[in-house]
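Agenda item 2: (4S)-4,5-diaminopentanoic acid complex prediction
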Amino acid sequence: QSNSTELFNKAQNILVGGVNSPVRAFKAVGSNPFFATSGQGATVTDADNNTYTDYVLSWGPLILGHAHPVVHDAVHTALDNGASFGIPTEAEITLGELIASHINFIEKVRLVNSGTEATMSAIRLARGVTKRDLVLKVEGCYHGHVDSLLVNAGSGPTTFGTPTSPGIPTSFVESTLTVPYNDLEAVREAFTERGHEISCMILEPVPGNMGVIVPEEGYLQGLRDITKEHGSLLIFDEVMSGFRIAMGGAEERYGVSPDLITLGKVIGGGLPVGAYGGSAEIMQYLSPEGPVYQAGTLSGNPLATAAGIATLTELAKPGVLQRIEAAQTRLGAGLGEIAKEAGIPIYQTQVGSMACMFFNENPVKNYQDATISNTERFTKYFHGMLERGHYFAPSQYEAGFTSIAHTDEIIDGTLEAAKEVFATF
Ligand code: HOZ
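Presented output:
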């Protein structure tokens, strides 16, 4: 019995399902997870000393790879000075300023501890500002496990076939309207019917939790126009895409500015962080300046802010983000050729260094399209790659990521393995 199996058996006695977040359980691919012991650069090592090229990267945050020396040193230095104060620190200002320096529309930021907290707080703020209750969300977008956003949600809920979770009061579900992605007409209809009640529309501008989906030309701008016309706020959830598809996120990539943005993952460099931000006019509704309450003992934690500052500073260096994206492009191009040669229909998507290979013969433009992918083929591919030392997310409905540590040589090694795996189909 492998050490990972032994640990997983033990874990199940104390941790629900043996894990602390469902997507880690490998349930969708019909096996058990490996247990990580260390990570270095583009690789992660398990409890049996197997080393894998890592395309999950802690589900996105590790854009500089595992144990990047600059992040490592910054966290160590911060730790020497104290792990937490619950008192303001200069690092919070620095991280806030860094974020705002890249994302133009942000004037003020609030740091929190996770992406879930960021989206939960952002919709509370939107409801407080507009004095309206309804939220319009997009099918298959995942915004963490916030009650009113766990409706037709992607990621784990889709993977496990429960897109809306029990435990959420009906009234919460009723206050959430959903529309398909890339469908402006559906958004227009929703606003025509209930626009005066809709506080905000929230979406991942580049969805990464139903696989990765590319926004069609004019879609994001259309949302901007419609929400503005109806006095609703537009929230871009860029927990996944922020500082990954561009330093300025979707605003830079597509030229559309939302009213609020939620961030996480990359801005914490592997430590628990989230953030939300917007104009001073909107953010001033937040306590202690305004009446909308939101708080956190560990918000702006010194270790997390140190990791975030180090990560964003490295990323901002010329050419870094482009190299990370180029690694993903190289991988995608290679996989496309291999699948074609093997005669296996796939549909690939990529924005920046986020990507997805859908086992689907048709274009994937929304959740509906994504969910008719061939998950049996995905599972076969996943296991074949893992056996050969290449770790992709254990679900068709997740994104793949590259980091600065993913060199051409590493990518080519993954492509060699993919060739072998596709030959077994
Ligand atoms: N957004 C991540 C999955 N798509 C979160 C990872 C988790 O749920 O643990």
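Discussion summary: The two ends are 28 Å apart (CA to CA).
Owner for follow-up: CH.
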